[in-house]
Amino acid sequence: MDTPSSFARNPTLLPTGSVVGTWRVEAWAGCGVHGAVYRAVSVHDPRSAPVALKLAMHPADPRFEREVELLSRCQHPSIPRLLDQGSWRAPSGTLHPFLVMQWVDGVSLYEQAHIQPPDSSQARRWLAQLAQALATLHAQQALHRDLKGDNIRVRRSDGRAMLLDFGTGLYPGAAPLTPAMMFPGTPIYRSPEAWLFEVRFYGSSTARYHPTPADDLYALGVTACRLLTGEYPQPAQPFRDEHGAWQVDDVLLPPALLKYPHIDPALRAFTLRLLSVRPEQRGTAAQLAEELEQTLRPFQGGGASVRTEAPRRRKLPRNAWRWGALAAAGLAVAVWAWRTIPGTAREPSSVAHEEASATGAPEAGTVGLGDSSMATALEGAPAASTEEGLRGNTLPQPVPGQTRADAKGRCPKGLVSLNGACWTEYSWESEACLTLGGEMLKGVCYVPFIPPGRRHPPTSDPPRNP
Hints:
The protein has helices spanning about 60-75, 110-115, 120-140, 190-200, 215-230, 255-260, 265-275, 285-300, 320-330, 330-340, 355-360, 430-435; strands at about 20, 25-30, 35-40, 50-55, 80-90, 95-100, 105-110, 150-155, 160-165, 235, 240, 245, 250, 415-420, 420-425, 440, 445-450. With about 475 residues, it is α+β, with helices and mostly antiparallel strands.
């Protein structure tokens, strides 16, 4: 007789009852770019507490080894405990790594804030817990590199903020997961210094950015800003100084962060500090956690708290997508599309990379344990304009510098022609689309395509790859 496990064909669709190691699958919990998450229980003790079983979609995925290493090093109440690890053999014979963690029953940070807007004491408590978790990581000389709302869950049982998804983390001696000039994580949370590095060394095949704890802290600042205002900050446009070097001297803050009267002054100051354009001004996670803990003591003594309900998030300024669009498409995809523009329709060489989607997708809701589903596949473009089939909706307006369609209304292969301009088509939801300046049309997100050469020209010799 067939057992439930015999019906499994891939790690993303294990049926209930499948056994992985010494764990029995109870329910599918979510699927991300690199792994599927299941709720499971011990085979030997079915009445035991449920666990989160995370199974790699690809054989021998090194991210799982990295996540196991980080979870085993970092013990903190806001970091899930590592319970087990091993390999699952697919029916094809391939071995897929898995890890088992403490089950976190809850919803994403932003979803929780939407359901019940936090007062100032609760917002401080969440941010303090996240800062403490980062301090634990940084004490191990490790980094998270993908802190964002979708990788934070608020646990139902006690309201604690839990930091999840350590698969793109970094620690001393860890082998690189991405090629040079590829940035893991979500673009909207990327620090100004990381964006500036990309501008300065755009096109280099050897330059590699070295992240620091300040990158994690900036991402925490973006998270705090989004939590308090419903909006994201944006790095300002780069400029050349008197010596011709690219610089960034500001972060574009949502007006609500500065003007919204109900934002707690201490939370505002905390967020502004984390969003400093100079990384050294952000301090350390341990310092920030202690400062927040000190501000919580009056609330613990019964003091009044201020409701921090945020206004509805407005669409970002039209130029805000400029920093995110290139990474959102994946740097390799953008370069490929640009190379097709000058000549005739030649077939581009393949530049697909397993981690490109993890580099460019905005967060798109709560999935599994924060291992967000980042659908960034580029849709095939038709040979001619697609406007005819889209009449009846307001077409998106072109932006300065955007690639225009040719005289026959055609765009380079891989792009879509709309309203006389060329766009990249995505399956993102409305919130994710608007975050990076795209336009929704009949349920599809269209992001303006500006050739990277017009934004990020190389200005100096790249450094050697360390």
